[in-house]
Amino acid sequence: MRGVASAWPAYTLWRGPGGLQHLKKLAGAAEIQVMCSDSGVYHGDMRSHSPTCCTFAEFLDSADPTASTSQQWGGQQVYLAQAPLRTSAPLPCSLTALQQDVGMPPCLKGQAVSHVNLWMSTSGARSSLHNDPYQNLLCVVRGRKAVTLFSPAMTPWLYPMPIWGESPNHSAVNFAAPDLQQHPLYAQALLGKQVAVLEAGDALFIPEGWWHQIDSAGVTMAVNFWWDSPLAALAGTPADAYCLRRLMGSLLDSRKQQLLAQVMPFHFHTAAQAGEPHGPALDPLPLRRVLLALAEHFPRSLSVLLMHGLTPAAAELLTGRFEAADAQLVEQGMHQEQQSFYSRLYSVVDDPQQVLEVMLARKEEFAAAICKQLIQEVLGVPYA
């Protein structure tokens, strides 16, 4: 969104050497914490942090070419990240005075903004690839930022840090020098990335869960606004366990369809063209006729197929087609034909219940393998 912050006092007052002096007058004595780096790259893993406390005025001097700061910072670059101007807590923040120069974007009218933060680089900065548990509006006041974005759908390709760790919302990929042997799927993510370049006055909406990595050029100042999404309203409630299972089930269903599409890409392509929402385009009713012909003419072969010949993926595929056919027949009120099919199909074995147990076991084996894979990919939890 172009020009969202261009009407703020900060857009004019924070620029140039006079802007640094203005900020010192507002909050120069405030105690802040900055991150230090030899390279200007700042990783989200807490083990990579080198936090240092100083006054806001001392930090601003690092952006002033006329000030001598090399001795104080030891030749390192410094970055001010997520310095609160306002939070939902009743106590004032150390940099609250800066908020008088910051406006509320009209697009946030009616939103319960919970955090307003200042981000500032004095000689450029590269922040690590991560996502946030908030809706986010990032507004550049001075300088330029390039924001690289990845959809939440790419999470398995971005190798999230373990869910139990201190930085579960960060990627394990070294974005500045990715090792594609260690993280080969990251190459796939790069094909789908989006990049937004923000000049002073511009704003970018980053939805909750979207992965982003930000490069700041030179002296750059930005203010961002966080507020809760509808999903956040469900978090921290007795529904947490239910929501986790519900979302995991949705992921499981999606991954099943992706894997089956790899097995039968032609049929899945046909299904998508036909607008069929579930499963491959193996027309279920003709498939039933083929199976009934096998039951009549090759009963032993069909018995061996059902009892011993189905892989887990094949069992998922076949029963999915059965369910699709059942739905069609029920809609047409053909309940008798539905029951007749199963009676004739299972007549090739001595114990029809045993066939059902075998097919369900194969389906569950297929789903369990996918579930283990998702736990590792999405939660970063190794699953032996």
Question: What does this protein structure show overall?
Answer:
The chain is of the alpha+beta class and 384 residues long. The protein has 2 domains: 9-233, Cupin (Jelly Rolls), CATH 2.60.120.650; 240-379, no CATH class. It is built from 13 helices and 10 strands. The chain has helices spanning 9-13, 16-27, 56-61, 70-73, 186-191, 230-234, 240-263, 265-274, 284-297, 299-309, 312-331, 335-345, 352-379; strands at residues 31-37, 41-42, 51-55, 77-86, 113-121, 125-127, 135-150, 194-199, 203-206, 211-227. Strands 1, 2, 3, 4, 5, 6, 7, 8, 9 and 10 form a 10-stranded mixed beta sheet that branches. Helix 9 (284-297) packs across helix 10 (299-309), helix 9 (284-297) packs across helix 11 (312-331) and helix 11 (312-331) packs across helix 13. It starts with 8 loop residues before the first helix and ends in a 5-residue tail after the last helix.
